[in-house]
Amino acid sequence: MAIPSYVPGLPVKHAALAGFKQVELPDKERVQPLWTIPPPDRTAELVEYLRGKARVLRNGPGLHPGWLDARNAEGELDLVVEHMWQEVCATLLGTALRPVTGPERDPAQQTAAAETAREWGDGLGVRVALHAGPDADLRDRCRELVGRVRGRDPELDLFLDLYDIGNADAAVARALLGWREVGTLAEWRTVTLLGGSFPWGAKELKDHDLTEWPRAEWQVWQLVRDRMEPQGPKITYGDYSTVHARSGDAPPGGGIFYEKPRYTTAEHFLIGKGAQWGRGEESLMKTLAARIVDDPEFRTSRSDGERWLQNQADPAVRTNPGNPSVWVEKGHIQHLTFVADQTREPDR
Fold first, then answer.
1. Burial 149-162 (b: 16+ CB within 10 A, else e)
2. Do 89 and 116 form a contact (C-beta atoms < 8 A)?
3. What is the Cα–Cα distance from 274 to 286, expressed in whole angstroms?
4. 314 class by beta-carbon count within 10 Å (0-12 exposed, 13-18 middle, 19+ buried)
5. Interior angle at CA 332, CA 327 and CA 336, nearest 5
6. What pTM value is reported for the model?
7. Per-residue pLDDT, 347
8. Measured between alpha carbons, how far is 331 from 263 in angstroms, rounded to an integer?
9. pLDDT of residue 348
10. Is 167 exposed, middle or buried (0-12, 13-18, 19+ CB in 10 A)?
11. How far is it, in rounded angstroms, from Cα 61 to Cα 338?
12. How far is Cα 32 from Cα 9, in angstroms, rounded to an integer?
């Protein structure tokens, strides 16, 4: 397999699927997503829901290298073992996706994921949650997992998942401690540090304005990389693109949405907060997009994400301001394109 230089954690949702499909890069195989299936709504029948997600992956990015995590369906473990890892995964056999497990998961899930990895033939992802730092049993549980799957002989890819990053210094400490606990338990084929700082809602954003929001995950990765790589493995950069880390784990539902164009610069997100969507308020999208396009770090026409913002900003072009799915999709396109370039030659 090509060793990734960037692993975006993306939810199996339309905006992320459509956004990734539109990313145009000469070496796109170096960008290998970790796809997470969101939980279904309460009325969904689980097996058919999972089959549907498998089909959209098969027809979309499934032929592109990456990983697939179905942790949000594992509450119904018997169904997951019987259906997700048999019927549903049969849909994805022959794709370039790899299943994912973790030390906190049921032994039946770990075994089923390892067996699927053996059938698919391209490795197994091990996702270690470090939301609040390693717990006292992490090393023992990870050792048991590695012992359980070793007999099926998959190559193992490690994800140190910081999830939602607030304080960068605390996140660096969690990452380094997590590596000390699990780093020596296997010969990991790849090691990815994953985390995100994009805000969940709009309360923290300036009304009718742009907010410059630090990309804490970028800073954390640089610090961890510089601490670990002189004596250890190469650390692949991972983030949650321009959505909150919770996006792949949150059930579908309503909420209040504001016009929210988003843009990624070297160290920040530029996030707009315009009119409340669906309430008949006068759109502020053209004003917000113009502010983004005028930023010194704006990359003119680099991707469809930039071109969309340029059209929105142009007073001579009549445009529709879009909807929440469009804003997320365009945000993914520009972010994934930019970070693929940014991680190709990291600033050391």
1. beeeebbbbbbbbb
2. yes
3. 10
4. middle
5. 160
6. 0.95
7. 44
8. 6
9. 38
10. exposed
11. 19
12. 9
Long-range contacts of 17-22 (CB under 8 A, 24+ apart): 17/56, 17/57, 17/60, 17/61, 18/329, 19/328, 19/329, 19/330, 19/331, 19/332, 19/333, 19/336, 20/60, 20/61, 20/64, 20/332, 20/336, 21/60, 21/61, 22/303, 22/304, 22/329, 22/333
Please state at what angle helix 168-182 crosses helix 138-150, rounded to 10 degrees: 50
Type of residue found at 33: P
The encoded tokens of residue 216 equal 């804490």
What is the CB neighbour count within 10 angstroms for residue 93?
Answer: 12
Distance CA 271, CA 190 (A): 32
Residue 50 near residue 84 (C-beta atoms within 8 A) = yes
Strand bridging mode 97-101 / 156-164: unpaired
Tally of CB atoms within 10 A around 111: 18
What pLDDT does 43 receive?
72
Written as one string, the DSSP assignment of 1-37 is -PPPSEEEEEESSHHHHHHHHT---TTGGGB--EEEP
The length of the chain is 348
Question: Exposed, middle or buried: residue 266 (CB in 10 Å: 0-12, 13-18, 19+)?
Answer: exposed
Which amino acid belongs to residue 178?
Answer: G
Q: Mean pLDDT for each consecutive 10-residue tract of the chain (348 residues)?
A: 93 95 92 94 80 89 88 76 71 88 92 89 95 87 95 90 96 96 96 97 93 98 94 94 94 83 98 91 96 98 98 95 96 98 70
For residue 80, the model assigns a pLDDT of: 67
